[in-house]
Amino acid sequence: MTSAEKQKIACFLDIAGDYLGSGYKSACREYHFDDDTENSASPQITQSNADFIEIIAQEIKVCGNCSLCQTRINAVPGEGVMQPVVMVIGEGPGEDEDKQGRPFVGKAGQLLDKMLSAIGLSRNENAFIANVVKCRPPKNRDPSPEETAACSQFLKRQISILKPQFILAAGRVSAQTLLKTTEPIGRLRGRFTELTVEENIYPLLATYHPAALLRSEEYKRPAWEDLKLLRSKIGI
Fold it and tell me: What is the pTM of this model?
């Protein structure tokens, strides 16, 4: 508040006092006020990471940036803890996720929870789970480049707010989308790469999607090797 603003308030209070006292208005007295400094100003109310994540979630739920909004039952923003050790990023919601509005809750999601638990991770304690697209593509098809582009700003904002220590890209679509590459998942997995979001660098490990493990036994061993590599880095 400026000194002039304070003077006006003081003058008003003097007038009110005169009216309530003698009933006569006296001349406004001059006061010597200083302008408020930044340190003496009223403290600003700040929002927590959870507040910002919830704001993004509400935006996602009413988003109409691509045609997926026309066929969804529920958008699926993601869920987990703030400041996660690991952020798991999958491809997109499936039928069960579309019905519940939660990520990875079907058979593949149940397997993912077991995989994470095996290396000391949980969406309830130290992980956050999301997808590159927030609405289910019809018949669980791969999301189109236009659809992933429409959702990209939501995912970038989530990463920037959560600031995970590591990112686990679950599946080909997730890894290729995040790393902007067409390399097959077999070449992308098994090693850490760097993902830059808003000038921050995040170690990213790609692995097979849990749904692929349910379809084919051959992916289970390399997926477990990936998880062990992640566990060695996070030290849980």
Answer: 0.80
